[in-house]
UniProtKB/TrEMBL annotation:
Name the UniProt record assigns to this protein: FemAB family XrtA/PEP-CTERM system-associated protein
SUPFAM superfamilies found in the cross-reference section: Acyl-CoA N-acyltransferases (Nat)
Coiled-coil residues: none
InterPro entries: Acyl_CoA_acyltransferase, BioF2-like_GNAT_dom, PEP-CTERM_FemAB-rel, PG_Glycine_Bridge_Synth
Lineage, broadest ranks: Bacteria, Pseudomonadati, Pseudomonadota, Alphaproteobacteria, Sphingomonadales
Organism: Novosphingobium clariflavum
Signal peptide: none
Length: 357
């Protein structure tokens, strides 16, 4: 059960063990134009289950009708502390409301919930945001999202890519590479091997494989894995989520060999082709930190940045949480992590990453 607290007024926590409550959430999301894949129970419940954290669904009601919904993951880390995130391990989420909602009451209940759960930090990664006061601060344009419509066919897709990047894609298409898609054990094992190496090379603790498996299982037909192989060995791989006609490559990476083989370029072009075959109309390249290498990589593909806004809250007297892998304060740890043997990084990484959120 996840409703031990009595919240004021029209606020309550839904029982996420109740299939009827899950159906109510899905019904609300189906009607709300701002709902993302990260609002769905198959995301925030799945990631909590796989990481040993806790999922919560905070709602405001008018009678039996949901007028505000906030998915939450209560995350505990011995390294980074406790956090309420919407949504955990995601680049999106946040509060969804209807015109009948009282947003101020929702944020007040959220602060109370955080204190009762001993979470001195809250992060809202999208949705309706509070004003920057009373412990809340807003971040604007620190990250950007990249999305555009898919082209009608392969040739049009190539022409939509700027000339320099298009040449790299053509080299990848001409290379001796094999492409596979699926969700079976072969696909999952290949993906995680590539993903773990990629994260070690970036200096970032890798997520536990159970997290990735849980999300794939939770999304069912709305998720799959595309892997590029060279000589039978996986060199690039990505998990993609499908939501409302958009394909979002989310957890991906490549080995050291991938760059010379243009395997990452091949992977994303093949994924665009695959997404069209699934009936998708848009390609959501996801979020990147403004000015980062990934930011410029996506611009090179012809995607335009769309600034994102986030909100964070810190309890009175608490220290601001810092778990951003791009933070200057973590630069030394990143350099050390990049030098770890892969087997050591793969063993220690999931123990740390399950609490990053």
């Amino acid at each position: 059960m996840n409703a031990p607290f009595v919240l004021p007024g029209s606020m309550r926590l839904l029982d996420l063990d109740d299939p009827g409550e899950l159906a109510r959430i899905e019904g609300f999301l189906a009607r709300h134009h701002g709902a993302s894949a990260f609002h769905r129970p198959c995301w925030f419940v799945s990631v909590a289950r796989a990481t040993g954290n806790r999922a919560l669904a905070l709602v405001q009601q008018r009678g039996d009708e949901i007028v505000a919904f906030l998915p939450l993951d209560a995350i505990h880390s011995p390294v980074f502390g406790r956090l309420l995130a919407s949504s955990g391990f995601a680049v999106g989420g946040g509060l969804l409301t209807t015109p009948d909602a009282d947003e101020g009451a929702v944020f007040a209940a959220l602060e109370e919930l955080a204190l009762r759960l001993s979470c001195p930090s809250i992060e809202l990664r999208g949705g309706v945001l509070p004003e920057a006061r009373g412990g809340w601060s807003l971040k604007r344009e620190s990250h950007c999202n990249f999305a555009r419509a898919l082209a009608a066919d392969d040739e049009a897709e190539l022409l939509a890519i700027p000339r320099k990047q298009r040449a790299e894609v053509r080299k990848g298409l001409a290379g001796d590479l094999q492409v596979e898609t699926g969700c079976g054990e072969r696909d999952r094992a290949a993906h995680y091997a590539v993903f773990a190496e990629s994260y070690r090379n970036l200096g970032t603790p890798v997520f536990p494989r159970a997290l990735l498996d849980s999300v794939i299982d939770g999304f069912g037909d709305d998720a799959d894995i595309l892997t590029v192989r060279h000589g039978g060995e996986p060199v690039a791989s990505v998990i993609t989520l499908y939501h409302r006609g958009a394909a979002m490559p989310y957890w991906g990476g490549g080995t050291h060999a991938a760059r010379g083989l243009r395997a990452n370029d091949r992977m994303y072009f093949e994924l665009m082709r695959h997404a069209r075959g699934r009936g998708c109309s848009h390609f959501d390249f996801g979020r990147s930190k403004t000015g980062s290498g990934a930011y410029h990589f996506k611009r090179n593909w012809g995607f335009e940045p769309e600034p994102l806004s986030y909100a964070t809250w810190t309890a009175p007297g608490a220290r601001t949480r810092d778990a951003d892998p791009t933070s200057a304060g973590l630069s030394l740890q990143i350099k050390v992590w990049q030098k770890l043997p892969l087997a050591v990084a793969n063993r220690l990484g999931p123990l740390i990453a399950r609490g990053i959120g």
